[in-house]
């Protein structure tokens, strides 16, 4: 940008300059120059204009002109390209921005990964109604048991159904039996307790966790699992050691569990270590009672 | 792809049409000014001012010199494409719904809505070479179908007229005598009003979209059902790729319920289906309202969609679109 005040002829006065919006002064400006496009497609356009302060400004615009490779345009279409604008398009404001290129990249979203079967879509698709239409009926009304017609909340027989049982704190065993027998009742049934679920493996897993489990309390804060392991392994093979750690503070909560492989070893450990002084504290070691719920 | 957004219309779009070479795109909307755009960069070339109501449909002559528009102001106007000048006005006594030039541009079929006791009708007008010699006389008037006739197009060799509308039936009429030749059977046909109809590039078959959430592909001569595409939203607009075996369905929930639900629930994507396997290929999102109009560029490399949101979105396909495998 070059500013050149001296180029203004002396007979122009300030007052005139303010009123004129620059258009009348065009004759004072050098004509627009277009250089190129050269071999690299670089085109330079040099324009001159007055800015708000009445100073002359040189504007150089450098653009790259790209030729579309093998663009097959009909002669008529090329002709139409140069048609003058008409209707409302004639007086279009530069700032109106009727045509914009989306800032967002829009993709043709595939309903499923290419090469997979159609059935997969029906499961992966976000539309639940579509799910119902699939081969496997997933839409099962829990109130009337009708398949593929409506969801439980939309059941026309909702009012006729028995009220869902209020929650009663029952022992786990009876609840399991009840849930297995009456799966159509409204109460939530965990997947592991549903009819047909492989119950044996699940409960076996739990039993093993509680087998020969010894609870150790009044542990010092510094005690960690390896320390407990060292203390208890002298009585026999240990299958699990656990020290409760406060999740917020990261320090030991002062108790832990040790699981022995054999019951005799556990018994001996309780007899020996209950009341044993460990790290300035007297340990309390006893059978871990299984949780009641 | 990065679509080009064209915001020339202030009201919902109703119809989109490319000219034969695919360099111009004509858009009609419920505002009164049909607009023409350059189809490559989306620049507005001009508007056709003169209608006094929603413009429902348009067609452009093969030489891209004449445009015909059907409007709810009970008129059909012929325009000079280049200058935007009105050439002729056909007046009716009810709103005009659809318009289609015959092969050779000598005839135009115009459908009019039922209105104030007037029944819906299909009118055939002769288009004069010289607009000053144009007359408003109908060559043929067909009445009979109940409800609106949403679309009527010319069949092969201009011998028949194919119509579809609110009574859910696709009909084929003799274009000389106005006799009903064939109609779709209720068992195979649409169950709800047919909203759109588009011919294939060669005219041998055509696609209808309906509010019964399906689109059907028919043979133009025998009116046998060839294919059925089911979707999960009412279909407002259909288009067929002239290049690949793809069909595009556009639609979405009713415009009146758009603001009451999440925009993801609206299903405002343009859905691509394989024409032969009837399987969904993919969806193109973007509109904030139902899609009312769809058109494929005659070269098959771009398509545009017009929505209830007033935008025309012009999509130029990415190169990988052309090798999509199911």
UniProtKB/TrEMBL annotation, chain A:
GO terms for cellular component: eukaryotic 43S preinitiation complex; eukaryotic 48S preinitiation complex; eukaryotic translation initiation factor 3 complex. CDD domains: eIF3G, RRM_eIF3G_like. One of its GO terms (molecular function) is translation initiation factor activity. Residues 1-23, 183-214 are annotated as: Disordered. Residues 204-213 have a biased composition (Basic and acidic residues). Residues 212-290 form the RRM domain. SMART domains: RRM (SM00360). GO terms for biological process: formation of cytoplasmic translation initiation complex. It holds the Pfam family eIF3g. It is found in: Cytoplasm. The keyword Cytoplasm applies. InterPro entries: eIF3_g, eIF3g_N, eIF3G_RRM, Nucleotide-bd_a/b_plait_sf, RBD_domain_sf, RRM_dom. Keywords: Cytoplasm, Initiation factor, Protein biosynthesis, RNA-binding. HAMAP family: eIF3g. Belongs to the eIF-3 subunit G family. Component of the eukaryotic translation initiation factor 3 (eIF-3) complex. RNA-binding component of the eukaryotic translation initiation factor 3 (eIF-3) complex, which is involved in protein synthesis of a specialized repertoire of mRNAs and, together with other initiation factors, stimulates binding of mRNA and methionyl-tRNAi to the 40S ribosome. The eIF-3 complex specifically targets and initiates translation of a subset of mRNAs involved in cell proliferation. This subunit can bind 18S rRNA. This is Eukaryotic translation initiation factor 3 subunit G. It comes from Populus alba x Populus x berolinensis.
UniProtKB/TrEMBL annotation, chain B:
Keywords: Cytoplasm, Initiation factor, Protein biosynthesis, Repeat, WD repeat. It is found in: Cytoplasm. It comes from the Eukaryota. The keyword Cell division does not apply. WD repeats lie at residues 6-47, 48-89, 142-183, 187-228, 284-314. GO terms for cellular component: eukaryotic 43S preinitiation complex; eukaryotic 48S preinitiation complex; eukaryotic translation initiation factor 3 complex, eIF3m. Component of the eukaryotic translation initiation factor 3 (eIF-3) complex. PANTHER family: EUKARYOTIC TRANSLATION INITIATION FACTOR 3 SUBUNIT I. This is Eukaryotic translation initiation factor 3 subunit I. It comes from Populus alba x Populus x berolinensis. The lineage of its organism: Eukaryota, Viridiplantae, Streptophyta, Embryophyta, Tracheophyta.
């Amino acid at each position: 940008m070059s500013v050149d005040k001296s180029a203004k002829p002396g007979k122009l006065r300030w007052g005139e300059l303010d009123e004129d919006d620059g258009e009348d002064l065009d004759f004072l400006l050098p004509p627009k120059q277009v250089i190129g496009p050269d071999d690299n497609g670089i085109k330079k356009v040099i324009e001159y204009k007055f800015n708000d302060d009445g100073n002359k400004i040189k504007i150089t615009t450098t653009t790259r002109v790209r030729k579309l490779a093998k663009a097959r345009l009909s002669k008529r279409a090329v002709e139409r390209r140069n048609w003058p604008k008409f209707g409302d398009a004639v007086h279009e404001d530069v700032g109106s921005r009727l045509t914009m290129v989306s800032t967002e990249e829009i993709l043709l979203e595939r309903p499923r990964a290419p090469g997979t079967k159609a059935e997969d879509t029906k499961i992966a698709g976000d539309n639940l109604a579509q799910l119902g239409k699939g081969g496997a009926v997933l839409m099962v009304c829990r109130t009337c048991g009708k398949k593929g017609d409506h969801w439980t909340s939309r059941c026309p027989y909702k009012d006729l159904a028995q009220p869902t049982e209020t929650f009663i704190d029952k022992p786990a065993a009876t609840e399991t039996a009840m849930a297995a027998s009456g799966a159509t009742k409204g109460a939530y049934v965990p997947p592991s307790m549903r009819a047909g679920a492989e119950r044996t493996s699940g409960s076996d897993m739990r039993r093993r966790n509680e087998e020969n489990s010894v609870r150790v309390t009044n542990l010092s804060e510094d005690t960690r699992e390896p320390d407990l392991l060292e203390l208890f392994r002298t009585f026999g093979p240990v299958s699990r050691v656990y020290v409760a750690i406060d999740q917020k503070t990261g320090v030991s909560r002062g108790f832990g569990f040790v699981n022995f492989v054999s019951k005799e070893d556990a018994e001996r450990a309780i007899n020996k270590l209950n009341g044993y002084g460990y790290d300035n504290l007297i340990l309390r070691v006893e059978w871990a009672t299984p949780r009641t719920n | 792809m990065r679509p080009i957004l064209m915001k020339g219309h202030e009201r919902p779009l109703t119809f989109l049409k490319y000219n034969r070479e695919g360099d111009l795109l004509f858009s009609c909307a419920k505002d009164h000014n049909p607009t023409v755009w350059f189809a490559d960069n989306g620049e507005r070339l001009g508007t056709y001012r003169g209608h006094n109501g929603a413009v429902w449909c348009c067609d452009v002559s093969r030489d891209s010199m004449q445009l015909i528009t059907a409007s709810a102001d009970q008129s059909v106007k012929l325009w000079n494409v280049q200058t935007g000048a009105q050439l002729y006005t056909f007046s009716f006594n009810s709103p005009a719904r659809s318009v289609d030039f015959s092969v050779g541009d000598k005839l135009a079929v115009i459908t009019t809505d039922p209105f104030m006791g007037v029944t819906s009708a299909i009118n055939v007008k002769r288009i004069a070479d010289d607009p000053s010699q144009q007359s408003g006389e109908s060559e043929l008037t067909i009445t009979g179908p109940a409800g609106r006739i949403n679309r009527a197009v010319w069949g092969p060799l201009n011998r028949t007229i194919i119509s579809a509308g609110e009574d859910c039936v696709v009909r084929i009429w003799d274009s000389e005598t106005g006799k009903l030749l064939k109609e779709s059977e209720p068992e195979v046909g649409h169950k709800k009003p047919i909203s759109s109809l588009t011919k294939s590039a060669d005219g041998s078959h055509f696609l209808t979209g309906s509010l019964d959430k399906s689109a059907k592909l028919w043979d133009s001569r025998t009116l046998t059902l060839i294919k059925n595409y089911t979707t999960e939203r009412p279909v407002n607009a259909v288009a067929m790729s002239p290049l690949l075996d793809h069909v595009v369905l556009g639609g979405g929930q009713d415009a009146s319920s758009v603001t009451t639900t999440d925009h993801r629930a609206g299903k405002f994507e343009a859905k691509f289906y394989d024409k032969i396997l009837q399987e969904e290929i993919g969806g193109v999102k973007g509109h904030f309202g139902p899609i009312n109009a769809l058109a494929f560029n005659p070269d098959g490399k771009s398509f545009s969609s017009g929505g209830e949101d007033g935008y025309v979105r012009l999509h130029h396909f990415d190169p990988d679109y052309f090798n999509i495998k199911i």
